């Protein structure tokens, strides 16, 4: 089955049957006659009509290929840059936000706005300054590969001896510079905790990625080894040492990858337990540092913590510091591996991981070999890194990711109408009400499951826009007060930013969780965030400020456009609370069995429809490769049920407020425009690599069916 039959079966059946044919049926092949009513002639409506017509391909009948009808002109006019695999309407919107921030960062008056934005501008300028980037990165790197940074790299130091090896100090300094070699540590509070505690998770290895097997593993191994060798050569290491030490490092990586491989299921179980009140055997709950040292004695945890907190200037009381260790079997195996490995190999390996973490911020030769490596290993996590056609986009995105609060505060003042939040909150409330109506009338659900599901909808925490308290000048300036940057080196600034990130993470420990702080910590990405998000373990919905703008949302637009665009986006994310993954978590975000087995079985019988339907779809540009309906199930359910709820919410709006004026110069009804506006938010141009990114094994965040292959009515 190829794209066109699919679109006929999916989009036509779900969307246009109700709008083009009910009450308006004409002769075979004829377009239905539009319903006549008032026409909106405001500037906003004129722009909206023009934007819709600009994407439409009206030579295609909507009931033959709805996607081509809605997006044909957009596809025809959009040219993919050489180094990009996909362009979409949503990316175009994100680019507009990037441009607002770009203009601010380029403005000489920004220096008069406040300390945090001055620091943001410093980071931006060092990112844009290619001369300093090319001149000093190796020198800065070598400085940090010493006792002044993370410790000497034996392969670069002929005088290095095993007596120089202090495992806990090296691990601490690497952690301080945000290089988690063997484990991650961060402050978090599971749903049933009122204070932040230190969470310790296993790290991963590029050779142990669960998505990789067989011939792919050998290819990744060779690419990884090549990257290591070329890095050593660029740093001027003698060839004899390059060969000997690189084989030792890669050999250790292989041993480490075996531990990370065996810990995959354990880690999944640990994530489950972190949201349950039961305390099973895979994790250590609320242990002191001394207890941790008893269970995993190969690492002197009290010494390691002391190094970390002292280096960051944070107070440490190990008697009050409680730790949650996820997957203790992993750490036992790690301890054995560390005990059996010569100090030189450990020091070489840890230094290599540090260099690898910062290679993207070094001079062009290093960036080039790293880019070559990422192209050879698309299965790995780094494949999710954005590639921008212009350097300014990459630098603005970098600033946005590190100065999210400062940029959000600026954007709120200069590119963001404040009254949109209230309107968006009304939309969220309407969508919740529709969810409850649908649940109440769902015949196959029993009363107990209905009540529990309704309670989860009511209890769903929601943040729209950005928390007001986090946009205040006092909050923003206090947040960045301890950060010191320079104008002479991007690599130096990134190292300082990493320390700042770790400092802010650890200073939350043993503090009470603020009402919205935990939500922000977990899922806010600032104004550059281009989509709403549902967070299952918190039962929380976030609608970020970056999407409360055209084309997704416009206060001056008719509501059939807003509900078709933003309404569908929000309803889609809400629906994630009630698909195959979301149903594992209750109203408080705890994993629990809150549906009966009978109801779960009924759910899976209906979900099977999605799996079977999508398994039949073929992407012909990928040599007839099929979509994986099972892996994309949660997205496909959210798409279909979310759209239904958005449309029903709009119908409720019309019932309560009356019909809206139609757009000028169009023959479509308002209901038809709801679905056209929905579809046009999915317009995109994608090459072969872009499709592979969607359906291949590479991506953990894009495991969903290509946008135009979605929308099937099974529930």
Automatic annotation (TrEMBL):
Q: Which GO terms describe its biological process?
A: protein processing
- Per the UniProt entry, the signal peptide is 1-29
Q: What are the recorded GO MF terms, alphabetically?
A: metal ion binding; metalloendopeptidase activity
Peptidase M13 C-terminal domain residues: 532-688
Per the entry, which co-factors are needed? Zn(2+)
Q: Where is the Peptidase M13 N-terminal domain?
A: 62-467
Keyword Metal-binding attributed: yes
**Which key words are in the record?**
Hydrolase, Metal-binding, Metalloprotease, Protease, Signal, Zinc
Q: Which family would the database say this protein is a member of?
A: Belongs to the peptidase M13 family.
The entry's protein name is Membrane metallo-endopeptidase-like 1
């Amino acid at each position: 089955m190829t794209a066109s039959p699919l679109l006929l079966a999916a989009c036509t059946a779900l969307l246009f049957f109700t709008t083009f044919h009910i009450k308006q049926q004409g002769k075979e092949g004829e377009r239905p006659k539009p319903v006549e009513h008032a026409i909106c002639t405001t500037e906003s409506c004129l722009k909206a009509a023009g934007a819709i017509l600009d994407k439409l391909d009206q030579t295609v009948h909507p009931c033959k290929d709805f996607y081509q009808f809605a997006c044909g002109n957009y596809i025809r006019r959009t040219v993919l840059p050489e180094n990009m695999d996909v362009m979409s309407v949503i990316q175009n919107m994100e680019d507009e936000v990037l441009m607002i921030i770009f203009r601010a960062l380029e403005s000489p008056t920004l220096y008069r706005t406040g300390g945090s934005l001055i620091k943001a501008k410093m980071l931006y300028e060092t990112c844009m300054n290619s001369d300093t980037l090319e001149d000093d990165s190796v020198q800065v790197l070598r400085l940090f590969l010493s006792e002044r940074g993370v410790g000497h790299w034996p392969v670069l130091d002929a005088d290095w001896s095993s007596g120089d090896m202090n495992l806990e100090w090296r691990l601490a300094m690497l952690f301080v510079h945000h290089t988690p070699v063997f484990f991650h540590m961060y402050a978090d509070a599971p749903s049933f905790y009122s204070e932040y505690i230190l969470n310790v998770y296993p790290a991963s290895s590029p050779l142990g990625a669960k998505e990789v097997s067989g011939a792919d593993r050998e290819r990744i191994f060779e690419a990884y080894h090549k990257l290591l060798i070329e890095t050593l050569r660029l740093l001027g290491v003698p060839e004899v040492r390059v060969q000997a030490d690189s084989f030792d490092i890669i050999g250790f990586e292989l041993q480490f990858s075996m531990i990370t491989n065996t810990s995959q299921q354990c880690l999944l179980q640990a994530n489950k337990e972190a949201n349950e009140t039961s305390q099973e055997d895979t994790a250590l709950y609320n242990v002191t540092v001394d207890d941790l040292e008893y269970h995993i004695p190969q690492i002197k945890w009290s010494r390691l913590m002391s190094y970390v907190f002292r280096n960051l200037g944070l107070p440490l009381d190990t008697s009050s510091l409680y730790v949650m260790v996820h997957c203790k079997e992993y750490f036992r195996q790690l301890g054995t591996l560390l005990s059996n490995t010569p100090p030189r190999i450990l020091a070489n390996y840890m230094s290599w991981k540090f260099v690898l973490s910062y290679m993207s911020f070094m001079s062009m030769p290093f960036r080039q070999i790293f880019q070559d490596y990422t192209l050879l290993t698309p299965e790995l996590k780094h494949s999710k890194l954005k590639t921008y056609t212009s350097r300014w986009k990459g630098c603005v995105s970098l600033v946005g990711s590190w100065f999210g609060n400062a940029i959000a505060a600026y954007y709120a003042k200069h590119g963001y109408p404040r009254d949109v939040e209230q309107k968006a909150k009304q939309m969220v409330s309407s969508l919740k009400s529709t969810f409850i109506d649908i649940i109440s009338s769902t015949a196959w659900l029993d009363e107990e499951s209905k009540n529990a599901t309704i309670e989860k909808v009511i209890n769903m925490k929601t943040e729209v826009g950005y928390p007001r308290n986090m946009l205040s000048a006092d909050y923003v300036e206090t947040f960045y007060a301890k950060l010191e940057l320079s104008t002479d080196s991007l690599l130096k600034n990134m190292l300082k930013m990493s320390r700042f990130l770790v400092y802010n993470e650890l200073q939350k420990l043993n503090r009470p969780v603020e009402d919205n702080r935990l939500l922000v910590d977990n899922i806010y990405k600032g104004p550059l965030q281009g989509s709403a998000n549902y967070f299952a373990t918190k039962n929380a919905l976030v609608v970020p400020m970056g999407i409360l703008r055209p084309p997704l949302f416009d206060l001056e637009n008719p509501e059939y456009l807003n509900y078709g665009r933003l309404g569908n986006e929000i309803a889609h994310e809400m629906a994630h609370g009630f698909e195959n993954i979301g149903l594992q978590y209750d109203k408080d975000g705890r994993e629990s069995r809150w549906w009966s087995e009978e109801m779960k079985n009924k759910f899976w019988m209906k979900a099977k429809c999605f799996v079977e339907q999508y398994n039949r779809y073929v992407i012909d540009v990928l040599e007839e490769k099929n979509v994986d309906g099972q892996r994309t199930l949660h997205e496909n359910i959210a798409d279909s049920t979310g759209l239904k709820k958005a449309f029903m919410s709009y119908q409720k709006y019309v019932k309560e407020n009356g019909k809206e004026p139609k757009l000028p110069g169009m023959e479509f009804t308002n209901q038809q425009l709801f679905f056209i506006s929905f579809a046009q938010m999915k317009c995109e141009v994608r090459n072969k690599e872009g499709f592979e990114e969607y359906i291949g094994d590479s991506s953990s965040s894009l495991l969903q069916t290509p946008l135009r292959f979605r929308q099937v009515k099974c529930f």
